[in-house]
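Recall the central idea of this unit: under ordinary conditions, the amino acid sequence of a chain determines the structure it adopts. In this exercise we apply that idea directly, starting from the sequence alone.
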Amino acid sequence: MGGVHARSARLAGATIVGVAGSRPGKSQGPHSSADELIESGEIDLVHICTPNHLHAPLTLKALAAGVAVICEKPLATDAETAALMAARAAEAGLVATVPFVYRFHAMVREARHRVARGDVGRVSLVHGSYLQDWLLRPEDDNWRVDPELGGPSRTFADIGSHWCDLAEFVTGERIAAVSAQTGVVQRERAGHAPVLTEDVVTVQFRTTGGALGSVTTSQVSPGRKNRLFLEVSGTEQSLAFDQEEPEKLWVGQRSGSMALVRDPATLSPQALPYSPLPSGHAQGYHECFDAFVADSYAALRGEHRDGLPTFEDGARAARVCDAVLASAASGRWAEC
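Accordingly, the structure predicted from this sequence is:
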């Protein structure tokens, strides 16, 4: 992820002062550690792309030094710490953002605008999934599997957080309560057992606006690479977005349905800034990340950017994740 961040930073006009690696030999620039880089007085903003357990200590150190932060998600490994990070950023008056980058697809912005405009009517149902297969086999392993490094949740904290943020962003409603189940499919990985973090999660929920919903997340679904799917149904229309086909927004009505294709000539003013390429020239993940970083840097210059995901949004995602784990452990509904 460091490489992805660095690419977008350069495209946004930043000068990269240095890179602090996991050990001195992997660092680049005059500073041998993250602490030295943060305390150097040479940087305006730091990108934190470390394993999850290091997000909080490095972020809090940066904020205390007056340095703005872009921190990978999950913001922290528990909701209390994430809330502390958001509070410290607010107290310091510093830009602090989280790369919930799927917000930056032009067709997601179009969907959000149409919901806010009232096209779908009253939202009644929100559902979808986020499916991957990169941890399908018992020989597949990663630091995220270890709760000491990744936190008590893996699949939901890693990708469920993206889905929930997108659902709340598009609908304008919060997930109010959840009923969840978690499952471990591969109980041993690369010789390590038992595996303590979940492979699959199913969640029922209700929103603050009274809509019902469900989401399934998995890192063990064969053939699914990065399939984030969101559908919003209302009393007048339905809208559906598939991250693996991001050029389209499905619009459904009782009288018929259509696939709205990204075209700068027909997009709403809210979506147009996130459609830099002509119609027919496919946009994707890199463009979303570029837009997120560019908007974060614009905020650093004192400019307003609508829909920029801040530490408050990161803390919000952590609260939902904690509620999912609590519900799965108790077998009862949990408030978010």
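Residues 109 and 271 are 5 Å apart (CA to CA).
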